[in-house]
Amino acid sequence: MIVSNLKNKNPLHEANEAHRYFSQLEGQIVQRLREEASSDSGREELIRSTGIRAPELVEELGKLGITADELVSLRLFPLVMVAWAEKRADEQEREAVMAEALKMGIHEDSSAWVLLDQWLQKRPPGLAVDAWKRYIHEMFHDMSRVAQQRLILVTEQQMTRVAKASGGHLGFGRLSAKEKATIDQTIAAMRHQIEVS
Length: 197
Description:
By secondary structure, the protein is mainly α. It has one domain (2-196). It is built from 11 helices and no strands. The protein has helices at 2-8, 11-38, 40-50, 55-64, 71-75, 77-83, 91-103, 111-121, 126-141, 145-165, 177-196. Helix 6 runs parallel beside helix 10 (145-165). The protein starts with a helix and ends with a helix.
């Protein structure tokens, strides 16, 4: 009887069931975060805890499901953009993004980690790019020029590490043309925010 039960268990089937369970659980968590972020109390908490003054940004963050706890993930959004430069974010790029998240103090059990992971599994909507640009504008408003330049440099270095993680063109650790273009566009957008802040 015990032997026949062991024979009937298919490891692949069990792995698929576990994956399906955790995907559903993660989906429920993300849905709860979106509901919390888009609620009046969620928006008020975001304004209170971050000092964000732009109502458009608060509205966009709510639509994206970003609460005050997940706002730090928006700082790493450029890394997500470069991971998706080649039409898909591969495992090496995902690991590179998450390594940068760990360096910033984002841990696996945080909602910011879950949000980053979602962005790496499914390409974020265009609204996320707009929210990131508004977020950078808000951040730069209260930063010194030196701090702004330092953030731009660090972001460029982080994006380059993510792009090189997948081996670049033909596996030689170089940037593809699309990755380079994404990095250049992102850095140009950040520099533009210095001019308008």
